[in-house]
Amino acid sequence: MKVVNFWKTLFCAALAVTAFTACSDDDDNGYSGTPEISVNGAATVSVVRDLTAGETSPVVSVVSKGDWTLAFNNAGDSQWVTPSTMSGKTGTTTLTFNVAQASAARTAKLTLTASTTFEGIPLKATAEIVVMQNEGGSTDVETNVKEIRTKMAAIATDGGVTISEDLTLTGIVVSDVEAGGFAGNRNCVVVDNSTEAGAGIIVRFPASGYKFPVGQVITGSIKGAKAALSYGVLQIDLDGSTVSFSAVEGSTVDVQPIPVPATDLATYESQYVKVSDVQPVASARGGKFYQGTSSYTTTKFETKTGGSLDISIYKTNDWAKTAEVPAKSGYVCGLVSIYNGVGQVAPRNAKDVAGLTNDLFTEAGPVTSTIAGITEAGKYKVVDAIVAANYESGFVMEDATGQMLVYQFIKGATITIPAVGAKVTVTGTVEPKNGMLQFSPEGLTVDANGTGSVKPQTATVLDGAAVTALFNSPVMKYVKYTGKLTVDGNYYNVAIDGTEVVGSISYPNADLNVASFNGQTIDVEGWFIGATSAASGAKYLTTLAVKVSANASVPSVVFTNQPATFAAENPEQQTINYTANAAAGTVTFDITGTDAAKFKVVSNTNSQVVIKAEGNNTGTTPYTATLNAKGSNGTILATADLKQAAPTSGSGYAKIEKVADLKEGTGYLAGLVNGKYQTWTGALPSKQCETVPYSYTEATGAFVADDATGAEISLVAVSGVSNAYYIKYGEKYLTVAAAGKNQLALADSAGDNYWTFTDDTNGVKATAKAFASIMMTSTGASSKYIRSYVTTNTSGVAGVVFFLAK
User: Fold this and answer.
1) Which residues are within 8 A (CB) of 678 and not within 5 positions of it... i.e. 6 or more apart?
2) pLDDT tens digits, one per residue of 375-395
3) Among 123, 574, 585, 688, which is least packed by CB within 10 angstroms?
4) Would you state the pLDDT for residue 664?
């Protein structure tokens, strides 16, 4: 597309001249001061002609202090460009260019150099002339970012889809890689020469990054690259492809920001904007634009109309580590990034925050409003609303006009959640989050002043299509959906048939007992409070649950305890408990797998199944099989892993990976797992879990410790708490070193420093070296859990397996 006059590549219009040969005015021979030179009043000028032979336009006016010479940057260009003169004197000179016939667009660059001497020292000044020849005979930059963006938005996926169409992208670079880039040196943001929304896109380069300066026009075929979404932001990913971009010679643009109100930022994704009448909130003033060690620092700003704005700075923007957030108002410039569907401004360099020079404006007080009257971000006060539902992070309030989420959670802070039915007055800042407006926790006040009646709600039943529609167009709604629940730590996710969007139960109240339904098909009823996306691209329908119950219509069986590993010799039979809903009918059991014949179902009732190992394991590897629970129609509704240990050898340690096999006593080793075992050493204070030279061979059951001195631990049962133990090293007790850190320490007394053990069945992955482990959850002020998905990957290791000396 051809875009006209917003940013100029020409610095002056054509000068009216009558001479077509070089001439000089104000000839001032002998000038010996500081040299100066300009072309049409600027440091650079572009002249152009169509593909026919003849003179370019406009005529160039050279104003010089000092004699000057003209030289081609590329000597070969003199074959088709003929200047009217190659030198001149101090004063004003008109300069013209003739070009030869051309078959395709081409560009030549020439440098003017003015020279003088001062006290015998040679001095120079330069200017640049760009001679262009193209089909249209125009110096306007031709770009097509909006056109390409529209095509990419139609096909992009979270994982990325390969671009098969032969497309060429041409755009103007607006990210400043020299000042730290936009989320690093790989994300090159290009835009059209336009003020229209939707005219910017990210080109993500390989790890080596890119070097194009701000204002450079670049072009490249994008066939073979990927159209991808990252956190919902559109980008063209070049990684793994052979796609490359090059600079369009002679095409640079004086980049200027687009004035945009804060409320419209999201529509200008990946464009360079200017937001006026803003100031940092009081708590941010005096700090640095980037501080700490995380990837981003987000600084809260407020608008003169009472709205809010996030300023986001990436860790590679070193200028922001010394730039202070001033106690001033004004404007900020930057690239538009998106977080949870909300536009943020990412300043590129110190110049982009230099507009904060005015006095602070009077902070807008809260506007008293009904819930339905709140249609944009700002400061509001809602009087005498009723708490319709609550969860561990806040509540949904309602009045006669509608409902709104009040989010109270602040990390490290103690919050008081009002009871359902409480009458409250809420004052604070409303922000767009997860696709909807909500009260944010910063500066929030919630005053309870009585009780009221909660309006009865009829849930909108969501199938897969309705879930997807609600995710794409979020609106506060009381809903009900059905799916299989998976509990993973503090995450409660419901797989809803017919959609890629997952139902996410957000921080449910304890009385819902959500974890007890793990693995079952459940009905969830409550308030839809937001559409969120993970870094992986997974999409979640975030729900404040009011009711959670087992679904009676879908057959369901859940094992409430898991089989322990049978002993290699003289194994005892085991009783496994299970629950089944009415839809499952009569539940039967069988055993399948490699060593199915080594195990047997002894008997079963409507709540228990008894299994045994058929004899001693006389081999060199453990026996394994799968216990299947089947509904009356023969469908497998639940499975459990069966295992009989191999005879142990080597150091005489038996591997334990089920809580049921742990007992109070001494002689234990505890290890972390990631393809080989790791364990904690005796020097624990302020140490993270460290690798020591221990190995365990599954094939032989041998556990070898080069030096186990001081590594053995003992377990001390906690009275009245199921599956809970103190862990002792000598006379000291294992605990967590500090809040927020996955570090271990030793305490002199037990206190609250005990650990609750649960079987980490979610840690088992379908890899050759994956097996079950135990999750340890600490107690006390620095509560932490230690677990991992057990794979050969060395990152995020924390799954625990115990060994017991025999």
Assistant:
1) 671, 672, 689, 690, 691, 692, 694, 797
2) 888 889 999 999 999 999 999
3) 688
4) 84
DSSP letters, 149-165, are: HHHHHHH-BSS-EE--S
Q: Reply yes or no on whether the pLDDT at 676 is more than 60.
A: no
Q: Do 67 and 42 meet the contact criterion of CB atoms below 8 Å apart?
A: no
C-alpha separations of 677 from 142, 211, 537, 697, 791 in Å: 60, 45, 32, 10, 12
Q: What pLDDT, on the 0 to 100 scale, is given for residue 780?
A: 58
End-to-end CA gap in the chain: 78
Name residue 116's amino acid. T
CB 622 within 8 A of CB 644: yes
Fill in the amino acid letter for 81: V
Beta-bridge partner residues of 643 = 624
Closest CA to 557 of 576, 531, 570, 539: 576
Q: Residue 746: beta bridge partners?
A: 734
Residue 764 has pLDDT above 50, yes or no: no
What is the identity of the amino acid at 64? S
The strand pairing partners of 87, in sequence order, are: 69
Does a cis peptide bond (omega within 30 degrees of 0) precede residue 122? no
DSSP letter for 329, please.
B
Query: Of 244, 197, 204, whose CA–CA distance to 228 is shortest?
Result: 204
Q: What is the pLDDT of residue 777?
A: 72
C-alpha to C-alpha distance for 125 and 131, rounded to whole angstroms: 20
249 vs 245: CA distance, rounded Å:
12
The number of helix segments (H) and strand segments (E) in the chain equals: 2, 60
**Angle in degrees, CA 304, 306, 307, rounded to 5:** 100
Nearest to 372 by CA among 401, 396, 395: 401
